[in-house]
Amino acid sequence: QVYEDNRGAVRRTFDTDEFRNAGIISTQWFQESYSHTHKKNTIRGLHVSLPPCMEGKLITPIRGEMLWVVVDVRKNSKTFGSHLTIILSNRKNNSLYVPRGFAHGCVSLTDDCDLVIKSDNAFSETKSTGIRWNDSDLAIDWCITNNQYIISERDSQYGSYKEFCENHNGV
Q: For residues 66 and 96, what is the distance between their CA atoms, to the nearest angstrom?
């Protein structure tokens, strides 16, 4: 909810009571990051944190629009391998909470996107891997225009979803 008046606005980005009322176990945030993306059609991910360094996240848009993608990689989950997409936008005043056990990725739908990302565990480079963003088995619609996109070398070299399953069998 946003509280506005002639001075501006206040938006609460986290509230323990709201999480508890939604049935989400009390979360203690360990890290908070600010993410800025310069150009539209910039892809990040799909990133996966492996045990014991899995991370739950709360993603809040500050400026611009991002398509956020989460893929369930929890090996005992009924929705293992399925994905969800949501547009995070400062105009919508929305946020996304994702518990541990999901691969994450996003693409900027506008120039100059800013996000605040809270994490419930420390990031570990050695326990980090990923899944190819355009994997045909996942068939994610990334809403990319003109098939022109920006992606890091690391993210572009991730293996397929099938390879992730063969190597890790989920998390």
A: 11
